[in-house]
Write a structure and sequence with these properties.
This protein has helices at 38-67, 69-72, 74-82, 85-98, 102-118, 124-145, 168-172, 192-199, 211-214, 236-257, 284-289, 301-305, 313-326, 363-368, 370-383, 399-418, 435-439, 441-444, 455-463, 481-496, 513-520, 532-539, 544-555, 560-570, and strands at 4-7, 9-12, 15-22, 159-163, 179-184, 204-206, 220-224, 229-232, 273-278, 295-299, 332-335, 389-393, 427-432, 450-453, 500-503, 524-528. With 572 residues, it is α/β, with parallel strands linked by helices. GO terms for molecular function: kinase activity; metal ion binding; phosphoenolpyruvate-protein phosphotransferase activity.
Length: 572
């Protein structure tokens, strides 16, 4: 069979050669029919319940080994539901009374439970059970229909994951020892699947449009994350070619590794901080291996997304303390919970919104649910006693929001001091990702300790283009002079007030953007750990005075493409 090339967007460097694993839910639809043999349907139900219990027992055992007893305990609720005699009795009764199939009876009864629990607005625990019932129902239904559900937790050999898209919770459960790469239908370099692939240090190709349509389960694949393509059913010659490419890339990485403990200096000796973005304390190893000079973004929401309920103050304190102590004498900036948009929690019922990215999310949730916010701030303050911890508020749009957040922070800090709890004195900053905040940066700079530009959302909001929507992807232009002018304004505003100007969006590690940002005088570049050494190598080739000329020309250019050409002329 001849090979086939599938093109997409190169989202994370590297080459992987493995078989495919389709992380795609099967069709679980069924026809409603009247049945004659009710006993046969009851027997089918019983067999599906037994098979589902066996699945979950296996998944739980695997989870204990990979995530620990506490995380694996979540599957106990699923096993309990499968053994609930009252629910099973109702399903069997539905089969016998209505003479319907086991599939239909299961769906009718479980839907009624889900609706009942979801309406318990004053009982968080019971609302959470509705999610468990949905998950269990899907598993039992799959057994009844004779189809297999994908389960990434059970992957025990090297694979390349094929999906329409990967949510943050999907990627958080994958085992990097076995998952050698991602390929998706949708997304771009700033999609969560792309960002997480760089965090996991595995290649990724996104935005292929047809990966799930063209790639079958277990199919041999080559994933070229360097050039943004996949080879389906590769020939022997192609396998050798990409094996050689992987070897060459590995050699290049070894050369970059020599820069691990070197300062991040430009050719003319100007220092810029190269920091890392992380999602969990487990990412610290990659941070150290890649010679990061700090952590510019700890995405604290992953502590919430990997939990079955709100993480306690002590749980959060332990995680923040571990990261701070793991970066001795180096700054660690923690972003407060950034939930909403495409990041949800099973135990937080968010309103259905026409445009959730512009709705109830991030700091807006924190200022509304101050109980959650105060818990997080107390944990952060306690951890600040052990190192250089900074706190950053996401999605700030107005000075009033920052002042409200700061007031709550000050109240919690004083309460801890009054109780005799040792705390540090963290710097307070904001993520600049809302254009209004970028435009008003000169006023924010008078009140914050630092600003960190979140380019992923800043570009999307400025260009009115959803970065996950392939139809408008052409508008997601990081080098558009309008975006560059906003960035320059923020950097200048910070410097005017003697404040640090940082960037923690994916643009900070973009090899085209870096020379321009050096020319603008950006102080800190925070990126996926795997991009650090490559960027440090680029720094050594850049003269800051010449890059200042490049930056001036770039902000006065007319188009995104014109800026790319300028960088090519000046640097490459």
């Amino acid at each position: 069979m001849p090979s086939r090339v599938l093109n997409g967007i190169a989202a994370s460097d590297g080459v992987a050669i493995a078989e495919s694993y389709r992380l795609v839910d099967p069709d679980l639809s069924f026809k409603k029919v009247k049945i004659t043999d009710v006993n046969a349907q009851a027997t089918r139900l019983s067999a599906a319940l037994v098979a589902s219990k066996k699945d979950l027992a296996q998944i739980k055992e695997h989870a204990i080994q990979t995530m620990g007893e506490d995380e694996a305990a979540a599957f106990d609720a699923h096993l309990t539901i499968l053994s609930d005699p009252e629910m099973i009795r109702q399903i069997v009764k539905q089969i016998r009374d209505q003479r319907v199939s086991a599939e239909e009876a299961l769906t009718v009864v479980t839907d009624s439970y889900v609706k009942l629990f979801e309406n318990m607005q004053d009982n968080l625990y019971m609302r959470e059970r509705s999610t468990d019932i949905r998950d269990v129902t899907k598993r039992v239904l799959a057994h009844l229909l004779g189809v297999e559900l994908p389960n990434p937790a059970l992957i025990d050999h090297q694979v390349i994951v094929v999906a329409h898209d990967l949510t943050p919770s999907d990627t958080a459960q994958l085992d990097r020892h076995f998952v050698k790469g991602f390929i998706t239908d949708v997304g771009g370099r700033t999609s969560h699947s792309a960002i997480m692939s760089r965090t996991l240090e595995i290649p990724a190709v996104v935005g292929t449009k047809r990966a799930t349509e063209l790639i079958s389960d277990g199919q041999p694949l080559i994933l070229d994350g360097l050039h943004g393509r996949a080879i389906l059913q590769p020939t022997t010659e192609e396998r050798q070619q990409y094996h050689d490419l992987a070897t060459t890339y590995k050699t290049q990485k070894i050369e970059w590794q020599k820069l691990q403990n070197k300062p991040s200096l430009t050719k003319d000796g100007v220092h810029h901080i190269l920091a890392a973005n992380i999602g969990t304390p487990e990412d610290l190893a990659a941070v150290t291996e890649n010679g990061a000079e700090g952590i510019g973004l700890f995405r604290s929401e992953f502590l919430y997304m990997n939990a079955q309920d709100w993480p306690t103050e002590d749980d959060q304190f332990a995680a923040y303390k571990k990261v701070v102590q793991g970066m001795p004498d180096k700054p660690v900036v923690v972003r407060t919970m950034d939930i909403g948009g495409d990041k949800g929690l099973p135990y937080l019922k968010l309103p259905k919104e026409m445009n959730p990215f512009m709705g109830y999310r991030a700091i807006r949730i924190s200022l509304n649910r101050t109980d959650i916010f105060r818990t997080q701030l107390r944990a952060l303050l306690r951890a600040s006693h052990f190192g250089q911890l900074g706190i950053m508020f996401p999605m700030i749009a107005t000075l009033a929001e920052f002042r409200s957040a700061k007031k709550i922070y000050q109240e919690e800090r004083q309460a801890l001091i009054d109780s005799g709890t040792p705390v540090g004195d963290p710097q307070l900053g904001i993520m600049v990702e809302v254009p209004a905040a970028a435009i008003l940066a000169d006023q924010f700079a008078k009140e914050v300790d630092f600003m960190s530009i979140g380019t992923n959302d800043l570009i999307g909001y400025s260009m009115a283009a959803d970065r996950t929507n392939e139809r408008v992807s052409y508008l997601y232009q990081p080098y558009n002079p309008a975006i560059l002018r906003l960035i320059k304004h923020v950097i200048d505003a910070c410097h005017h007030e003697g404040k640090l100007a940082a960037m923690c969006g994916e643009m900070a590690g973009d090899q085209i953007a870096v020379p321009i940002l050096v020319g603008m005088g950006l102080d800190e570049f925070s990126m996926s750990a795997t991009s650090i050494l490559k960027t440090r190598s680029l720094f050594h080739r850049l003269d800051s005075t010449r890059m200042a000329t490049l930056a001036d020309k770039a902000i006065h250019a007319s188009t995104n493409d014109e800026v790319i050409q300028l960088v090519d002329d000046f640097v490459f």
